[in-house]
């Protein structure tokens, strides 16, 4: 057991370094954890040995997987059902445009320009079609735009975009068998029952020291995740949908969300993001940097082609249109999840994984910086008073 505790201290130490780095550079903690994982694997691999980090240890794999599942659930649970209901046409059209343009465009670039085989090319399309609900939410929260209909619409469109990614990942790469049919039927049944069962269960048994609500949600997430894995799909797929159907219940319980964030960001997600970063091959990136540049430009251009004209249909101003496009060009969580899924299942090799994750990391930073620096709709900020802004919560979605 001594080796386990020492190894755990190394991983938590790396997570602590990542947090300090994120604070110093004012970047996402998840982003810094990926970078720290990449550098740690490079340095430790060159000095001690690549196996020292123990990325394939079962308990590390479990914690990383649990982090991805709960993180995905939180992303779905923090949506605003009222905005989706009131502006469903607008959010659906913008969200689908933000998904299909990069999904098809990036897959075509990987297949015909880079010459990748069909399955890796489709995985590129899936991974780069994403938008980061977490990054967008963090920006909205910091600026106060989360209290405006403009900000809420962007968040809802990001959800539609990522829902397309989740479905595409499952349909393209999960073989349809009897197990798949059982999984789909069970999922539909669970999703239909949860909005009725959960609030009644919570009203009767909640507010106990034993954290019954957290155990209830983890039971659902792990159970459906296990069923998805049994059906040869990905455990994070049902987690996002569970979050979505419970957004009106769990999402409005801010105390519960805060406790789940503490568990997720304090313990679980560092293992996920550091592990994801440790699989990035720096030598592969340095040997062919043009591949990274091509993929990054492909995502950025196709997102612009898909989102910008669509916002004009709904009469967005120039600043609102470009800013919406910039934010929806971000990617992080689902991009790395999709890439890690492809790498773990042998769909892409380590070099291809490295190119995709590097592109995802760049897309989490560059569009946000450009949008906030040059296209921020400041006239919307003037109508949001300080009293209307939500207080920043330590460990909130800025950590995503």
Q: How large is the radius of gyration?
A: 20 Å
Low-pLDDT windows of residues: 385-400
**Number of helical segments?**
18
Strand content: under 5%
Shape: globular
Tell me, rounded to a whole number, the average pLDDT: 85
SS content category: mainly alpha
How many strands in all?
0
Helix content: over 70%
Order of helices and strands: HHHHHHHHHHHHHHHHHH
Gap between N and C termini, in Å?
31 Å
Characterize the largest beta sheet: strand count, sense, and whether it forms a barrel: none
Account of the 3D structure:
- The chain is mainly alpha-helical.
- 77% of the residues lie in helices and 0% in strands.
- The chain contains 18 helices and no strands.
- The protein has helices at 2-25, 29-47, 58-77, 81-86, 88-113, 118-128, 133-143, 149-173, 178-205, 212-230, 236-245, 254-278, 282-287, 289-313, 318-328, 333-344, 350-374, 378-381.
- Helix 5 (88-113) runs antiparallel to helix 14 (289-313) and helix 6 packs antiparallel against helix 16 (333-344).
- The radius of gyration is 20 Å and the shape is globular.
- The model is unreliable at 385-400 (pLDDT under 50).
SSE topology sketch:
Elements: H1 2-25, H2 29-47, H3 58-77, H4 81-86, H5 88-113, H6 118-128, H7 133-143, H8 149-173, H9 178-205, H10 212-230, H11 236-245, H12 254-278, H13 282-287, H14 289-313, H15 318-328, H16 333-344, H17 350-374, H18 378-381
């Amino acid at each position: 057991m001594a080796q386990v505790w020492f190894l755990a201290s190394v991983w938590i130490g790396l997570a602590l370094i990542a947090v300090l780095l994120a604070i110093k550079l004012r970047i996402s903690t998840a982003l810094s954890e990926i970078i720290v994982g990449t550098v740690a694997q490079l340095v430790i691999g060159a000095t001690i040995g690549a196996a020292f980090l123990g990325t394939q240890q079962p308990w590390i794999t479990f914690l990383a997987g649990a982090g991805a599942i709960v993180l995905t659930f939180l992303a779905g649970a923090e949506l605003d059902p009222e905005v989706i209901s009131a502006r469903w046409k607008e959010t659906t059209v913008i969200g689908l445009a933000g998904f299909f343009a990069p999904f098809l465009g990036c897959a075509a670039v990987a297949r015909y320009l880079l010459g990748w085989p069909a399955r890796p090319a489709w995985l590129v399309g899936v991974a780069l079609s994403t938008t980061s609900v977490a990054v967008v939410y963090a920006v909205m929260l910091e600026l106060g735009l989360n209290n405006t209909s403009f900000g809420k619409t962007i968040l809802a469109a990001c959800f539609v975009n990522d829902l397309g990614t989740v479905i595409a990942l499952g349909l393209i790469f999960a073989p349809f068998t009897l197990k798949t049919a059982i999984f789909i039927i069970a999922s539909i049944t669970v999703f239909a029952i949860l909005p009725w069962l959960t609030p009644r269960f919570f009203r009767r048994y909640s507010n106990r020291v034993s954290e019954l609500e957290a155990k209830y949600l983890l039971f659902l997430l792990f159970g459906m995740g296990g069923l998805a894995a049994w059906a040869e799909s990905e455990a994070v797929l049902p987690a996002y949908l569970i979050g979505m159907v419970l957004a009106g219940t769990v999402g409005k319980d801010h105390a519960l969300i805060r406790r789940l964030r503490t568990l997720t960001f304090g313990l679980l997600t560092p293992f996920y993001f550091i592990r994801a970063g440790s699989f990035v091959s720096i030598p592969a990136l340095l040997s062919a940097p043009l591949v990274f540049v091509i993929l990054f430009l492909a995502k950025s251009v196709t997102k612009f082609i898909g989102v910008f004209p669509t916002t004009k249909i709904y009469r967005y101003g120039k600043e609102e249109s470009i800013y919406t496009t910039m934010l929806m060009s971000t990617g992080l969580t689902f991009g790395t999840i999709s890439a890690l899924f492809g790498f773990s299942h042998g769909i892409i090799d380590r070099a291809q994984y490295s190119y995709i994750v590097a592109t995802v990391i760049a897309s989490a930073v560059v569009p946000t910086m450009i949008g906030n620096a040059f296209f921020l709709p400041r006239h919307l900020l003037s109508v949001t008073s300080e009293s209307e802004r939500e207080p920043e919560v330590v460990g909130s979605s800025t950590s995503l």
